[in-house]
Structure formats: C-alpha cells, structure tokens
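ok new one. same drill as before - structure tokens go in, u give me an amino acid for every spot. 670 of them this time. try not to just spam alanines like last time pls lmao
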C-alpha cells in the first residue's frame, strides 16, 4: 500500500508544481522579457520484483525556460537597429520641418527682400520703398539668426539626450553585472537548474541596453555572460561593470565625446558608439546637423559678400558711394572665430590662426582639421573632417606669418608657437548665420544709383551712342587699395572725355587735355572702353560701350553721377542678384543654395523614414518569432491547466484507493 500511496503522492506533488508553473506563465503573460516555462516530467526509477520492474511514480526532471538564443540575439540586434533609425528619423523630421516651413525657413524672407528691392528700383527716390527694403533686409537677418539659434537648441537637445541615455546605459550595465553574480551564485546552477527568472531579467536588461547602443553578448561560463560594444570593447565582464560617460570634446567644445572608465583609466570611444539611440544621435549630429550649420552659414556669407560688393559700388541719395549693406565677412573678429584651438594643444598654446574668405562663389561648406605633424612645429596637414582625407600639407616657413590656400578661403598662421600634435579646427562658415547683421541704418544711405554716367556732346555729327556703363569696383580687387578715380568724395577723379580724332581713332583725355589712353574704333560692333582686368595699370573700375558711327571731332564725357537720385541702375542689379548664380562656382543663386540645403535634409529625412519603417517591420518579425517560442499563449496554458488539474485529481484518487485498500486489509484481520 505504501508504494501505491507514494506513486499517487509523486503525481500529486509533480502536477501541483506543473499547475504552479502554468499559473506563473499566465500571470506573467504581459511581463516584458518573460520566457514561458515548462515542467519536464520523467518516470521515477522502477523497483525490481520477481515479476519484473514496477514503476514508483513520477519525478520533475527540470523546469525548462523556453528560450532560443538565436532568436534572443536577433531581437536584440533588430532592437538596436530600429532605435538608431527611429532616433535619426525623429531628429531629421524636426530639422526638415524647421528648414522647409514657410514661417520658419529662409526662402520666404529672401523672396520678400528681393521683391522689395525690385519695387524700390521702380521708384528709387521713394523713401517708403527704401524703408521697406531695410525692413525686409532686417527680416532676412532675423531669419538667419533664428535658424542658427534653432540649430543650437537642437544641438543642445541632442547633447542632453546623449547624457541621459548614457546614464540609463550605466544603470543597465550595473544591473547586468549584478544579475551575472546572482545567477552564478544560485543554488541549483551546479545541478543544471538555472534561475529562470534571473535569466529573463538579464536578457531583458541587455535588450534595453541594445535600445541605447549596439552590444554583443558572449557566454563566459558559470551562467554568466560578457557584454561588449560592437567592436569588442567590454562593458560587462562577469560581475564587473565599466562606466560610460560624456564630456566636452577638446577639439570642438560645442560637441560631446563618449568615454569609458574602468578603474583609473578613461578612454574616448566615440567611434565605437554605434546603433541604438546613441548611434542615431551621433549620426544625426555628424550627417545632418553640423552640415546644416555649415550650409546655412555659406548662404549667409555669399549673401553678405555679394550684396556688400554691389552696394559699395553704387551711389546713395546724398551722392556718396555706398557702404556695407550687411556686416563685413572678413572682420578681424570673424576671421579669428572661424578657428577653434584644441584644448589638448601643448603649452604655451599661443598659436594665432585666422581664416580669410577669399571667394564666396567657390567657398565649400565643411570643417577641416589643421594638424601640426613634426617636432619642430613646421610640418602641417589639413584634413577634411567629413572624409578624413588630407587635402593640403606642407612646411611652414621659419618666420611667420604663413598662409595655406584653399578653394574660397585661406588659413593664416600669424603668430605664436606651434608644437607637434597641436590641432586647430577650421570652420569657415559654421557661425556665419549667427554673425550676419544689417549695416545700413538710413533710407538715404541705400546706394541705388550708379556713381558714373556718360553723355554725348550735343555737337556730335555722327550717330554713335554711349551706354551708361558698368561698375566693377571702387577698389582694386587684387590689392584692395582704393582706386584713384573714386578718391575724391562726390567726384570722378578725373572726369574723362572720349574724343574721336578720326572716324576709327579715339583718345581718352582728362580735363586739362592730357591724353590718358588711345584706341581704335570698329564700326558695326559695340566697342568697350576701359579694361576689366584689375592687373592692367589702366584699370578704372568701370567700363562703357560705344556703338554706331562716330565722326572725327565727336566726343563723349564721362563723369560722376551728380544729382542722380532717380537713377535705379544699381538697384536693378541688386534686385537681379536674387536669380544670379553667385554660389557653387556660379551654378546656384542664394535661394537655390538654400533650397539645396532643404533638399539635402529632405532626402535624408525621407530615407530615415523608410529605414525606420523597415527596421520596425524587422523588429516586429523577430519579436513575433521569439514570442512563438518564448511567449505565453493563454489558450494553450488554459488547456494545460485542465490537463494538469485532471492529472492532479487522478493522482489524488490513486492515494484514495491506496487508503481504502489499506483500510480493507485492516478490517480483514480483525
């Protein structure tokens, strides 16, 4: 009877554990990371009798955790990929909305400004029209500065998210190490009975860590795992955990760099941070936000330089040459601000480096690193930060200053000590959108007229005509020295006369009759007067054209445009700059340059959206595959409840039968 009771008891106890396990599965059906558990029964050792082996009941061999390592790894990998893509999509969408919005972008402000210039050109003497030009110009300045400030705010938000995610990662890394220790010390591990709940918690902690950064997991024995970054840099080794951190980048203080601390040793691991939210934030910063800073600044530089040049060769309402329209692009403050010396430069760290913009039409957007590469501090290389390629290298002279020529800008090493390992970040356009300002204060100061004009002598006998000329400059562009023709305020120095000594010969004379130039005239074509080559000694900064058939004795006078308040020639040219290709080697206008930035961001945003959608589908598929193995199916568990309940009742009935038999036996012997 005792054997039958023990058989029934083993069934009762075994199926009681099975019921408990099934109930636990049902209770944790919605617990993140929970893996379904299953009781594995095995027959107890049989007892030999003369009639053969007799069973002794049932034992629980194991309570198995249903988890597929491959599927767990796949979910972790897809989680990292999706979070990277979704983070990138979210930040890109915010930037795209900012640049492309009618109220937040730059396009509408530029269009309004040039439309105001065109309206003013139709009535150049109107003060209200001139005031509208100034108002719209200030709106353009405000929009540049507002966009720059929005970029800065988004950059600071990215840095905040980086810091917060690193803090979350450290919590998870520490938790994984603690779980490793708890698992290795669990009582049943040596007997092959791992703590299933702790394994689930560890897998879930690693999965959450993969949301932040891409990680690799490897078994290390004794139930523990090692967790590392994608390149193998260890985060968790057994029960030991390292500490992630962020700090200001020494080469570019506006950015953060990632660090890893293990004891007293700290190393920079920027390039090893991939995948997850941190990887998405890094990609957004380097692939979209920083290029947006540079591209917007490039438009600002081109607008300032082109408008300033055209305005300075015009004449205002009071008969003076125009001044700066927008701020000077090569002010001393701006030249120095375009260079950031690394905080790791060797003492005394007094090297003075400046950047001079030389040609806005060929100026690229980007950043370069100037590295000093020799012990004597004279060898250098200029490295493109985006591609990592050396674009310029050489030796500095023994005595400074020295100049490194690049397309659109020059890097000047002016003074100080330079040592091997010194690094300077060159950013020709990064801050230009913040530094633009409107310099014209009064309506009367707008230079809408041209400072020179020509007239034909009333006594001319031929039918030749002279146009009103084209202004090139009031300074020599090669030397930046003022041209003598415009050295006297309100005058052309000297006034000129074009006198035809024959039908096909002319002389350029000053008021005293001195011959300054001679030339040959060709009928049937438009003949240009004065060179447009700044290196020519006769360069005057302007050019006129005569056409028709002059006669000997005909003359034309060229002088200052006195009382030219109704002249709109320079205003027309400034308004025409809206569509003139002055950027990217003469292939884009200002509006097209900005539209190119909007398009670049838009394309990257759309790609990020597609990648995020694809990543989401992949994650859903791998999650569903894992759930098919490890997830709790309530219908299935309900069926098991009934199955185990029936087995429990039957086992109890076996014990009841054994009790009745024992009672019958006792009665027989009374």
């Amino acid at each position: 009877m005792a054997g039958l009771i023990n058989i029934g008891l083993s069934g009762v106890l075994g199926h009681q554990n099975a019921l408990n396990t099934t109930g636990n599965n049902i209770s944790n059906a919605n617990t993140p990371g929970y893996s379904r558990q299953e009781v594995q029964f095995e027959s107890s050792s049989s007892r030999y009798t003369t009639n053969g082996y007799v069973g002794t009941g049932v034992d629980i061999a194991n309570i198995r955790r249903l988890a597929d390592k491959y599927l767990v790894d796949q979910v972790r990998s897809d989680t990292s990929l999706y979070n990277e893509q979704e983070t990138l999509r979210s930040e890109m969408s915010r930037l795209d909305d900012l640049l492309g919005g009618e109220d937040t972008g730059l396009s509408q402000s530029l269009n309004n400004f040039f439309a105001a210039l065109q309206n003013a050109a139709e009535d150049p003497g109107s003060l209200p029209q001139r005031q509208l030009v100034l108002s719209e110009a200030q709106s353009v300045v405000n929009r540049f500065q507002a966009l720059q400030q929005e970029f800065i705010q988004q950059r600071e938000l990215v840095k905040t998210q980086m810091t917060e995610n690193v803090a979350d990662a450290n919590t998870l890394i520490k938790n994984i190490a603690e779980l490793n220790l708890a698992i290795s010390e669990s009582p049943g591990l040596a007997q092959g009975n791992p703590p299933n709940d702790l394994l689930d918690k560890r897998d879930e902690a690693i999965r959450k860590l993969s949301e932040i950064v891409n990680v690799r997991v490897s078994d290390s024995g004794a139930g523990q795992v090692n967790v590392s970054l994608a390149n193998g840099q260890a985060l968790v080794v057994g029960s030991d955990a390292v500490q992630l951190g962020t700090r200001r980048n020494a080469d570019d203080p506006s950015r953060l760099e990632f660090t890893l601390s293990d004891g007293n040793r700290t190393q920079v691991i920027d390039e090893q941070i991939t995948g997850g939210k941190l990887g998405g934030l890094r990609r957004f910063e380097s692939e979209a936000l920083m290029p947006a800073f540079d591209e917007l600044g490039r438009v600002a530089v081109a607008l300032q330089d082109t408008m300033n040049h055209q305005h300075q060769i015009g004449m205002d309402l009071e008969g003076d040459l125009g001044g700066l329209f927008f701020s000077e692009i090569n002010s001393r403050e701006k030249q120095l601000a375009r260079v950031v010396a690394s905080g790791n430069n060797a003492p005394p760290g007094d090297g003075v480096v400046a950047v001079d913009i030389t040609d806005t039409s060929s100026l690229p957007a980007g950043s370069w690193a100037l590295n000093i590469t020799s012990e004597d501090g004279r060898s250098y290389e200029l490295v493109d930060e985006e591609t990592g390629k050396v674009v310029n290298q050489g030796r500095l002279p023994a005595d400074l200053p020295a100049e490194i020529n690049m397309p659109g800008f020059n890097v000047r090493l002016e003074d100080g000590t330079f040592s091997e390992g010194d690094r300077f970040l060159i950013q020709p356009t990064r801050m230009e959108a913040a530094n633009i300002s409107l310099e014209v204060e009064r309506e009367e100061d707008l230079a809408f007229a041209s400072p020179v004009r020509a007239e034909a002598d009333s006594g001319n006998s031929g039918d030749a005509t002279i146009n009103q000329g084209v202004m090139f400059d009031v300074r020599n562009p090669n030397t930046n020295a003022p041209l003598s023709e415009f050295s006297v305020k309100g005058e052309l120095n000297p006034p000129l006369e074009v006198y035809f000594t024959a039908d096909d010969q002319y002389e350029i004379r000053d008021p005293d009759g001195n011959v300054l130039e001679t030339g040959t005239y060709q009928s049937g074509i438009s003949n240009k007067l004065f060179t447009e080559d700044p290196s020519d000694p006769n360069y005057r900064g302007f050019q006129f054209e005569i056409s028709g058939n002059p006669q000997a004795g005909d003359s034309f006078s060229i002088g200052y445009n006195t009382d030219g308040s109704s002249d709109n020639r320079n205003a027309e040219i400034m308004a025409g700059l809206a569509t003139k290709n002055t950027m990217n080697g003469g292939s884009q206008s200002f509006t097209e340059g900005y539209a190119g930035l909007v398009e670049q961001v838009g394309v990257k945003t759309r790609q990020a959206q597609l990648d995020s959608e694809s990543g989401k589908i992949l994650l859903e598929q791998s999650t569903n595959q894992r759930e098919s193995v490890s997830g709790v199916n309530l219908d299935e568990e309900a069926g098991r409840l009934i199955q185990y309940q029936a087995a429990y009742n039957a086992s109890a009935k076996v014990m009841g039968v054994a009790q009745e038999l024992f009672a019958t036996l006792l009665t027989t012997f009374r």
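The chain has eleven helices and 28 strands. and btw The radius of gyration is 41 Å.
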